[in-house]
Amino acid sequence: MIELNVNNESGSLQIVVLGIPDDFGGTPKLEECYDPKSKQHIIEGTFPHQLEVTQEMNFFLELLKKYDVEVFRPKNIKGLNQIFVRDISFVIGDKLIVPNIIEDRLKEIEALTDLFESIKDTDIIRMPDSVRVEGGDVMPWNDYIFVGYSKEEDFNTYKVSRTNAEGVSFLQDQFSDKIVKSFELNKSDTDPKENALHLDCCFQPFGVKNAIMYKGGFKNGEDTDFLVNLFSEENIIFISKEEMYQMNSNVFSISEKVIVSEKGFTRLNNELRNRGFIVEEIQYSQIAKMEGLLRCSTMPLKRK
Fold first, then answer.
1. CATH topology for the 13-303 domain
2. Contact assessment for residue 127 and residue 173, using Cβ atoms and an 8 Å cutoff
3. Cα dist from 259 to 17, 209, 281, whole Å
4. Which one, 66, 68, 89, 98, has the greatest CB density within 10 A?
């Protein structure tokens, strides 16, 4: 049985689920898309191909093995995009939460059956029907659980609104020993530069007391003020709208010192190195076209 343990975003990674690119389904029809960035690349004829996506994920797999991380993969379901495993389940402390996600993605959860069988039933929490959360919106950070969400009006308006207020309340009830801090995100079904699909598309903590932030992804100024006060301005790397669009906040920490990043994030990677971090650069720009990147592709099960 797997012993779960995830209390933050940067503890030394021991066990992780990495998505699979096999049979990801190729270019979907425009009406089948549920995020504006994928729609944009379909319209422009630049949606990624199977070979490119497979090569990028294989780079990531080899890098994880280099750091002696145990890697689980979902079962392959032909013709289904199973790259972004972060959203379909996530770990807080010693519990794995299986959320309710949009109907378009329900089959992805079926591919984790073998994983669920490797975890004690008492360590798996399933959400009631009215509760909606995706893992990209949820970040355990020591005493805190940060949650991106949409209030009812936005949640009922935008397909890219994936976590509702009931989801925030559910996490508060389940993890009463933590401070659940929620942030409303800006949403757009049509413009990827105005859409924070998940919290990790505009914010991510790393190291011991550092963070990456795009202020424009947050609906309320008091939320960004809270985070700036919590982390201190000098410990935050602020990114631009264009950098947010390219997914600069969606890097992935293997440890407090080692960060996996897309090799095209030149300014961010230089800034990380200047602050003393080891940056492992890999090619991941094709996967970024589907509005997800390195954090989205991983679901940590155990960190030290």
1. L-arginine/glycine Amidinotransferase; Chain A (3.75.10)
2. no
3. 17, 14, 9
4. 89
DSSP state string for 144-163: EEEEEEB-HHHHHH-TT---
pLDDT digits (tens, 9 = 90+) for 51-61: 999 999 999 99
Element housing 299 (H / E): strand 298-303
259 SS3 class: strand
Widest distance between CA atoms in the chain: 48
Residues 110-167 have pLDDT tens digits of: 899 999 999 999 999 999 989 999 999 999 999 999 999 999 999 999 999 999 999 9
- Going from N- to C-terminal start, the domains of the chain cover 13-303
What is the spatial distance between Cα 201 and Cα 203, in angstroms, rounded to a whole number? 6
Give which of 290, 216, 277 is closest to 247, Cα–Cα. Answer: 290
Q: How far apart are CA 226 and CA 222, in angstroms?
A: 6
For residue 224, what are its two tokens?
């960004």
**Amino acid in position 106:** L
**CA 83 to CA 96: how far, in whole Å?**
19
Cβ neighbours for 164, distance < 8 A, ≥ 6 positions apart = 131, 132, 133, 149, 150, 152, 155
Check: pTM over 0.85? Answer yes or no. yes
